[in-house]
Task: inverse folding
């Protein structure tokens, strides 16, 4: 079965410092991986996705993610954190069991990012 | 959140009541989804629909019902059979083009917070 894990419940960084939010996955076959961000009492916003190709994926708001097949990881990164980046971040993987003509997304439990001024 | 609306933002339910959560999208997406979010658990799939007049159970469908009479609308009813309905409910949709490409980027509405009194 496909699964995704976010090993850290919370990450704290100072503004201006680089940030990393970790995600590891377990899939059979090629993984399709996603990152979403959620601000308080809001829906999820799509940040970026990995399908194939370059291991470094660039997304919205200056975020990027590095796909590492040997380590089965897809960590989210940003070179310089902003206070406004403080939010809940979810990693997701596409489930390879087809739902009719589509695929299910399996979400991690989320990582809360706190950026200190 | 653009293109997908959910109402109401907050909803209070008495024991034994059925309540219906609205989800509307103007993105011309074929597929729509309902998720439930509980603290520390990520998102869990309740129901999904690929086309009008068709829908399938997700992982936690018991106590919920849906309809898909129009492409742009996918309302969720939380019935009195749902024993622990207090949660944040998120609606999402995805493009048929994304499904053809096999990536299924899901876009989310702003959510409805349901509280049982």
Result:
């Amino acid at each position: 079965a496909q699964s995704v894990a976010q090993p850290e419940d919370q990450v704290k960084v100072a503004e201006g410092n680089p940030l990393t939010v970790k995600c590891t996955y377990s899939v059979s076959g090629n993984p399709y991986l996603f990152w979403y961000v959620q601000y308080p009492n809001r829906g999820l916003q799509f940040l970026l996705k990995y399908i194939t190709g370059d291991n470094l994926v660039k997304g919205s708001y200056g975020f990027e993610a590095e796909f590492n097949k040997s380590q089965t990881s897809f960590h989210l990164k940003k070179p310089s954190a902003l206070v406004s980046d403080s939010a809940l971040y979810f990693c997701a993987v596409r489930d390879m069991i087809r739902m009719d003509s589509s695929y299910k997304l399996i979400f991690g439990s989320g990582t809360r990012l706190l950026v200190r001024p | 959140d653009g293109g997908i609306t959910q109402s109401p933002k907050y909803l209070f339910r008495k024991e034994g009541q059925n309540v219906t959560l609205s989800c509307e999208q103007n993105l011309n997406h074929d597929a729509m989804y309902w998720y439930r979010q509980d603290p520390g658990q990520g998102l869990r799939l309740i129901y999904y629909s690929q086309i009008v007049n068709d829908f399938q159970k997700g992982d936690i469908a018991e106590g919920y019902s849906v309809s898909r009479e129009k492409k742009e609308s996918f309302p969720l009813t939380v019935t009195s059979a749902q024993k622990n309905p207090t949660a944040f409910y998120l609606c999402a949709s995805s493009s048929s083009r994304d499904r053809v490409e096999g990536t299924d980027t899901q876009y989310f509405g702003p959510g409805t917070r349901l509280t049982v009194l």
